[in-house]
Structures are given as structure tokens and as C-alpha cells.
Amino acid sequence: MPTLTRHGWFAAIVLTVAAAGCAPLRATSYHWPGADVGRYRTFAWGPADRFSTGDPRLDNNEIFRARVQRAVERELLPRGLERSNGPTADVVVHVHARIDQRIQSDSIDRALAVCPPGGCGPRVYAAGTLLLDFVDTRTQRLAWRGWAEGGLDAVIDDQVRLEQMIDEAVADILARWPR
Amino acid sequence: MRRMTARLVLTTAAACALVACATMRVSSHVERGLDFSRYQTFDWGPADALPAGDPRLAEDRHFEDRVEGAIEKQMAARGYRRSSPGAAPDVRIHYHATIDRRLDVNETDRRTGYCGAGACLASVVEYEAGTLVVDMVDSQTNRLIWRGWAQGSVQGVLGNREHLARRVDQGVAKMFVRLPAAR
Fold this sequence. Notes:
Strand order of the largest sheet of chain A: 1-6-5-4-2-3
Largest sheet of chain A: 6 strands, mixed
Helix content of chain B: 25-40%
Structural class of chain B: alpha/beta
Structural class of chain A: alpha/beta
Helix content of chain A: 25-40%
Strand order of the largest sheet of chain B: 1-6-5-4-2-3
Distance between the termini of chain B: 64 Å
Number of strands of chain B: 6
Oligomer: heterodimer
Order of helices and strands of chain B: HEEHEEHEEH
Strand content of chain A: 25-35%
Order of helices and strands of chain A: HEEHEEHEEH
Distance between the termini of chain A: 37 Å
Largest sheet of chain B: 6 strands, mixed
Largest interface: A-B, 24 and 33 residues
Strand content of chain B: 25-35%
Shape of chain B: globular
Shape of chain A: elongated
Number of strands of chain A: 6
């Protein structure tokens, strides 16, 4: 197997990232010590987010929210959590979404001469964060929080791509759910 | 130095006209699997509480009349009737207009090779983007069934009412093309 130089590896990674639209999904989660997440069998949806998403296209967008909820329900079922409408659910799930514009400078690309089509230069992209909060109904405390971040350029304007991105983000987040 | 500044301003203006300012991005989201032919009547509904508008567009009856007129025209063209007073409409429509600061990369200079002083350096420009969101809500289920929007720079638009009116008509017409037709 030919060995790549360190720079070569780096370039390969940068190229992969560029091909994936600058920012692939990154999922992170936090499990509150002491929270007995494995005990949960039922969940209920928390009230709609009162925070602005930072993008008027997604503020109060029930079509978006319903898609996220469907994806979460699909991912939670095989993990032994079923949706319950009553107040007796073990855990309440809250969904937050946030869109920010970010600037990506090109110093690495330029140094490696691996600039995307159009040449080297700064890029502006929309970064999206989808966050799921699991609040224990008994203790009223956050038990588990997971989120995924990724580039959303031109994705919100394309419903099919947005739906794929939601499904992917939710699957990535909940893949981190403790077994 | 002054020449350079003038050229820079020109470049920025040209790039702005080509990239951010002239283009309008229009799209929509729709609830899947709905038969839109069951919706025939509409009325205006209360707006969302959340997104605060911009004071430059708030409580501006001229602007609201223009938006409402444009929407009513598009709805009529698609066979929707305004529900009679006292009768419940099939759908309720509300809209909101917001203005956000946004960033864009001045790409045109690089592509056209028309660059300012020295090298062809892309610059990040800040502009104000206006978004008009139009929501259609099923009045029985109270669920959002369709949302259309038009987004574009409002540079030189807010202070020019004729220009603003044209942009509103254009944006509304383009977004309603995306409304699912009755089957």
C-alpha cells in the first residue's frame, strides 16, 4: 500500500470535506451522570420551540417539525422507546433547530492548493444545528442531550434534501443513545 | 487612492447587483400526501407570534395591502374563493416579513476577472436580506400545509416603494407557482 505523506492525507481529508459540501454532519451527545436513561420506555413531545431558529423559513415551520418528530419516533422505536400521549411518559423530548451563517477562510486550502472550483477565497455557508433534549419527567431534569451540526447551504430551499438531512442527523444523534 | 476607492465601490456595486441584490430565492415546503383539491375557500388568519418583523416594515398598511393584494390575486388565479363572512374557510393564510443581516462572498469579481486593486481577492460583503413567508393553514386541523417564501436583498428596495411593490408582486407570483395544484 503506497504511503501518503502527512500533507497528502490532509489534502485528501480536505477534499472529501469539500466534496461533501464543506461541512459534514457531526453528532455529539451528553449523558448526565446519574440519569438512568436505560430505564425509559415511553416518551412524549415537548411544546414547540419558542426560540427563533435564526431563519424565517424554519421559524414556526410545522412541516419541518413534523419531519423531525417522525424521524425521532422511527429511531427510538428500535431502542425500546414508544411514544405516549399521556402525562405518564418517562421522558419528554424537545426539539431545537438553529441556523447560523459562518465564514470559512481558505488558508488551509490555499496552503495545499486544493481550492474548490471557483478558486481560493473565503466561503460563506449556513451552518445548521439540530438538538434533541430528553427531560426526565420524574426529576424534571435534562437526562440526555444530543445534537448534530452540518452545512445547510441551499438545503432549506430543497425540501427533499432537507428531509434527507433531517433523517441523517436524527439517525446520527440517536446512534449515540446509550444501549 | 481616491481612484482605487471609487473602483472598489463600483466593483462592490456591480457584484452586489449581480449576486445578492438582484436575485430572489423562492421556494416552499409542503405537507406530504395531501389532496389540495379539497381546499377551495380561504380567509386571512392571525400571524405567528414568534418572528419579530422589522420596524421599517411594521404597521405599514401600504406594504400589507400590496402583499395581501398579490396573494389574493394568486389565490383567485388558482380557483380559491374568499370564504363568505361567517362561514369557516378551508384554509387560513398569514404571512410575515423579516429582515436579517446576511453575508455573501463577492464571487463575481473572481469569475469575471474584474478585480480591484492588486490580486483577485474575494471579499465578504454584508447585506440585508428580506424574507416574505406565506403560510397556508388547514383551518380544521390547524396545521401548516404549505409555506412559500421569497428572499432577496432589500438594498435600495425599502426606500423605493415602487420597487418594493414590484418585488412583492414578483416574489408572491413565483412562490405560488410552487403551490400544489388541485388534482
